[in-house]
C-alpha cells in the first residue's frame, strides 16, 4: 500500500496536470464562484487536518477527507442565501467516489438532486447543472477505494448566495525584533500577532524583514516563531534585506524556517491563487532588473493567470516619502505589473504607513495603475517622514505598529490599517479590479 | 536695483591654451538679493568664499556647492539640536527650484554635466552598526522625473562577482558620467573603502577597486581622479585610467581631503588648506593657486 504522502503527491500531480489542460467553462460565463470560504460541514473527517472547510478554501493543496471505509458520507456548503446554481466543480483526491449525488436544498433538510453518477472516475468532475437553493451537498454512496471520500476543492458557481467571493488577508512587513510572545504586550510583534489572530485572515502576507537583525534561523526560532509563527501555515512570506544579512548565507535562516512555504517553486519568489485573486510574492534582494530571471518569471506568470485581480508584494517600495525615498530597484517589476493591469502592491522596508493613489511606474496618477501601500509596521521601531512628500501620496502615518487588513472580493478590494490597539487608522476605499 | 555693481572678474589664461576662464575670485556680491551669476553661461569658475559662505558672484550662502549646465546644488546646514541639511536645487540664476531636507551635516555635492542628475552626501551619527561613529548618507535627485532617492545604500551591489549584502554599507562622493546614468562613488563596508561604478537606469553597482574615495570623472568619461589614503594617513590625489586600470599619482603631494572637480579636459581643481588649487590630471606639472580663501570649486 502506498503511503498516504506518496498517494497524496501522485494525486496532486494528477490534479495539477488536469488543471493545466485548457478547461471549457460550462454554465454562464458571468456566473461567479459562490462557495469559497462559506461555512461547510461534513458527515465525518479522517483527521483534524482534513476538515470540510479545506474543500472551499481555494487551495488545491488542502483537502477534506471523510473517515475511511464507511458509506455513505457527505459534505455540505452553506451559500449564505438562496442562489441560482449553474455549475459544480469537484476536484477529487485519490480517494474518490464511484457513486455520488450532487444535491441542492433551500432549507438543509429537503434535498433535490442536481447530478448523479455511479461510474465516477475521480479527477475533476466539472458539472453543468440547473437548480437553486442555499445549500449544496455532495453525497457519496459508494467509494472507489478502501479509503473515504476526499475533495481538494468543491466549487459552486452561480448567482446570489451570501458571498461575493470575498476573503480577508492580513499584511505587514518589518516584524520581529528580539523579544518573544512570553514578553506579552511589551513585545510589539506579539501585539501585532494578537491583532492578526483577531482578524483571523485566510492568509498572512509578510513584506520582508520578518526577523531582525540577520534573519538567522536561531533568531526566527527564538522570536518570530513565538508570535507570528502561530500563523506559519497560512503565511505567504517574502524576505527583506535583513534576511540577507544571515552569515549562514543570504536568506538561509528564512528558507530554513519557512521551508517550502517560502520557496514553493524552489525560488524565493512565487505566486498563488485564492478566489478571484492572483498573488505574486517577490524578492527584492534578488535581481529585479529587466531581463533578470525573476522579472522573466513574473511576466510569464502574469501572462498565465486567469484571475481577475492581481496583488503583488515585496520588501522595497518604489515610491516612498519616508526615510529612504525613491528606490528604483523594483521599477522593472512595476512596469510588468502595470502592463498586466495589476491592482494592488504591498511593500515594507520603511517603518511607516503610506498609501498612494493608483499610478503608473513613472509616478503619473492613473486609475489604470496599481494602488500601492507601504506597511512596515509589524513591530520594528518606526521611522519618520522628514523628506519630500511624493505627489501621489495620500496618507502617511508613523509612530504606530499594526497590520493591513484587506478584504478582497471577486471584483475588487478594500482595506483598513488596524493599529495594535484595535483602532482603525486608515481606510482604503472600495476599489474595483482592472 | 543698482545695476552698476560690477564684480571683480579675473581672466586667467591657463596652460598655454586659448581657452579663457572667468574666475569669480573677488569679493562676494553685496547681499542685494539679486545674483549676477548665470550658471548657464559656460566657462565660469565658481567657488565658495570661506569667510562668508557665499558663492562668489552671488548672494547664495552654501556649505557645499556644485554647478553644471545651468543647474546648481547648494548644501546648507541648519542650526538646531538635530543635524539638518537642506539640499537646494538652483536654476541658472541661482533661484531655488527645489529643497530636499536631509538629516546630517553637509559633505559632498555634485551636478551631472547636463544638469539633470544631482547628488549629495551628508554625515550622520547614530547608525547602530557604527557604535556611535560617523557614517554617511548619499542621495540622488533626478530632475527629469523629480524622484529623490534619499539614500542609495540599497542599490544592489556586486563585489567579487557576487551580490553583496551587509548592513553597514555606506556611500559617499558621487560623480556622474555624461550619459546621466553611469556614476562612480565610494562605498565603505567592514572597515574598507572601495571605488564603485553604478548605473542609475539599471540600478546596480559593482566594486572596482579598494582605497579610492571621492571620485571625479573626467569630461570624456575615461579617467577618474580620487583621493587615496597613503600609509602615512594623508590623502593623495590619484588618477585612474578606466580602460587600462592604471593608477597615477598627481603632482600635488599635499594632503588633499576634497572631491576634485575637472577644470578642463586635462586638469582638476580642489580645496587645499584654505585655498583652491589646480593640477594636471596626468601626474605632470605642478599645483597652482586658483582662488584664495575658497572651497567647492565648480566650472560652468
Number of spatially distinct domains of chain A: 2
Total domains of chain B: 1
Count of strand segments of chain B: 26
| CATH architecture tag of the largest domain in chain A | 4-Layer Sandwich
Structural class of chain A: alpha+beta
Main β-sheet description of chain A: 8 strands, antiparallel
What is the approximate shape of chain A?
globular
CATH class of chain B equals: Mainly Beta
> What is the straight-line distance between the termini of chain B?
26 Å
In short:
The complex is a heterodimer of chains A (434) and B (300). Chain A is an alpha+beta fold and 434 residues long.
Characterization of the model:
- The complex is a heterodimer of chains A (434) and B (300).
- With 434 residues, chain A is of the alpha+beta class.
- Chain A has 2 domains: 4-11 and 27-160, Sandwich (Jelly Rolls), CATH 2.60.120.260; 167-432, 4-Layer Sandwich (Purple Acid Phosphatase, chain A, domain 2).
- Chain A has helices at 4-20, 188-199, 217-222, 252-258, 293-304, 331-339, and strands at residues 32-33, 40-42, 64-65, 73-92, 97-105, 112-117, 124-143, 150-160, 167-172, 203-207, 235-238, 270-274, 277-281, 309-313, 344-347, 353-356, 371-375, 393-397, 402-408, 412-419, 424-432.
- In chain A, a hairpin with a 3-residue loop joins strand 19 (402-408) and strand 20.
- The longest helix of chain A has 17 residues, at 4-20.
- Chain A is globular, with a radius of gyration of 22 Å.
- The relative contact order of chain A is 0.11.
- By secondary structure, chain B is an all-beta fold.
- Chain B has a single domain, classed as 6 Propeller (Neuraminidase), CATH 2.120.10.
- Chain B contains no helices and 26 strands.
- In chain B, the strands form 6 sheets. Chain B has a 6-stranded mixed beta sheet with strand order 13-12-17-16-15-14, with no helix packed on it.
- In chain B, strand 4 and strand 5 form a beta hairpin.
- In chain B, 46% of the residues are buried.
- The chains are: A alpha+beta (434), B mainly beta (300).
- The interface between A and B is medium-sized, with 26 and 23 residues.
